[in-house]
């Protein structure tokens, strides 16, 4: 055994690189299962019905959805494509929630024909379109309205004014408009209005942000009941549960954040004497992020006037987050884990963009060509945001567990990238 070589799920990354090539998304299947089980077990209440929805936008494929299904979680999707993958994975449609701010007529038709459980209605125009589609289809569906509570959480701060111009949902200050949407939905026999959905941000490190969200929503629900006789059975509080990326990150323990949410919901329900009977959350990133890593092979290195670059065989095409919003990551030379980190370098990708930088100024051993570099916590929004920029193929996805590995998404070949190209006459 090479003590310098990193193993994931009992499998050497050197063997994975040889068998599956690089770049490569590697998921520790046991870590995913552990997080799924924790959310399922910790988000339980004697006073309220609870449901945990996996936010599939973080990462979705049939193998992952099989794990979600096995652990008894539900699912949220935000497009016809994500819904189709759920159907292909034989996910129970009654446990699927359809989000999004601009669902098409075809997507709503598709959702109802699949027998989806719940549509999360984003705005007034979508409300009217859902009514139209529901009348035509005759299929029954539950509905939640997405509202904007005016609470925005960002890292260690949260404020109660900044989210009023979000592209998602309707501000809770527009009670008359919200009441009209509820009445419009409730007038259709096969649409069953259940309650409201909100989401206050990502990478939330302060549980008090959830307290502020719940208190604001409960007051709104009470006022809506008093003024418009609208009863709310369910609240979906969204996600935002943090993952660990670098040493600066201090995620709230799941036991703490789950108990905070449930205790606050119970207290506020009692305070306002509400008929609320169900609470939902939507973790995505926090389930898969830390379970996933991306393995690269080092190519050339280059010394400039002020920095040294280490080039890898992937980059912004398989991880757009650093270029998109300066996301921070940690890394190691995976074949030299026990060597001294003696050199400050910048990890750069091979895309033809100056902004194709994965990590600025990180300490590593002296990197050599063909070393293996592992970038940690890429399990969320890596594969799902990958592109073919510069005609680079998307990497394969491999699940590892108990010393065994299985490819769950194949590497995209040059031939794959040309499959959709054609020269067909459009009949106008």
TrEMBL record:
Its cofactor is pyridoxal 5'-phosphate. Belongs to the Orn/Lys/Arg decarboxylase class-II family. LysA subfamily. Homodimer. Pathway: Amino-acid biosynthesis; L-lysine biosynthesis via DAP pathway; L-lysine from DL-2,6-diaminopimelate: step 1/1. Specifically catalyzes the decarboxylation of meso-diaminopimelate (meso-DAP) to L-lysine. It comes from Amedibacillus dolichus DSM 3991. The modification N6-(pyridoxal phosphate)lysine is found at residue 57. This is Diaminopimelate decarboxylase. Substrate binds at residues 285, 321, 325, 353, 381. Keywords: Amino-acid biosynthesis, Decarboxylase, Lyase, Lysine biosynthesis, Pyridoxal phosphate. Pfam families: Orn_Arg_deC_N, Orn_DAP_Arg_deC. SUPFAM superfamilies: Alanine racemase C-terminal domain-like, PLP-binding barrel.
């Amino acid at each position: 055994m090479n003590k310098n070589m990193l193993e994931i799920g009992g499998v050497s990354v050197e063997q994975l690189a040889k068998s599956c090539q690089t770049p490569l998304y590697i998921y520790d299947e046991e870590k995913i299962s552990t997080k799924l089980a924790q959310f399922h077990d910790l988000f339980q209440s004697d006073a309220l019905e609870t449901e945990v929805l996996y936010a599939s936008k973080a990462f979705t494929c049939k193998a992952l959805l099989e794990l979600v299904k096995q652990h008894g979680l539900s699912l949220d999707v935000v497009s016809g494509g994500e819904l189709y993958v759920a159907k292909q994975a034989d996910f129970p449609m009654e446990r699927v929630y359809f989000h999004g701010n601009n669902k098409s007529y075809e997507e709503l038709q598709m959702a109802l024909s699949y027998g989806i459980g719940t549509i999360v209605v984003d705005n007034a125009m979508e409300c009217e379109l859902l009514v139209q589609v529901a009348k035509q289809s005759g299929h029954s569906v539950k509905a939640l309205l997405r509202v904007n509570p005016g609470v925005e959480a960002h890292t260690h701060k949260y404020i109660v004014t900044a989210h009023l111009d979000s592209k998602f949902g309707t501000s809770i200050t527009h009670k008359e408009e919200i009441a009209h949407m509820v009445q419009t939905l409730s007038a259709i026999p096969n649409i069953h209005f259940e309650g409201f959905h909100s989401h206050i941000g990502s990478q939330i490190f302060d549980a008090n942000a959830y307290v502020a969200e719940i208190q604001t929503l409960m007051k709104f629900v009470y006022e809506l009941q008093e003024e418009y006789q609208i009863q709310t059975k369910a609240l979906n509080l969204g996600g935002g549960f943090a993952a660990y990326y670098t040493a600066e990150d201090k995620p709230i323990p799941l036991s703490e954040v789950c108990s905070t949410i449930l205790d606050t919901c119970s207290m506020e329900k009692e305070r306002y004497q509400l008929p609320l009977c169900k609470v939902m959350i939507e973790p995505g990133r926090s389930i898969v992020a830390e379970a996933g890593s991306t393995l690269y092979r080092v190519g050339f290195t280059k010394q400039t006037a002020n920095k040294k670059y280490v080039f890898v065989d992937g980059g912004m095409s398989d991880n757009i987050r650093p270029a998109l919003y300066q996301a921070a990551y940690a890394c190691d030379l995976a074949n030299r884990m026990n060597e001294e980190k003696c050199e400050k370098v910048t990890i750069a990708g091979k895309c033809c963009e100056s902004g194709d930088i994965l990590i600025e100024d990180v300490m590593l051993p002296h990197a050599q060509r063909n070393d293996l570099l592992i970038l940690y916590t890429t399990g969320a929004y890596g594969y799902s945001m990958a592109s073919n920029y510069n005609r680079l193929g998307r990497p394969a996805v491999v699940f590892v567990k108990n010393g065994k590995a299985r490819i769950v998404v194949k590497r995209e070949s040059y031939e794959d990238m040309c499959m959709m190209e054609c020269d067909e006459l459009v009949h106008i």
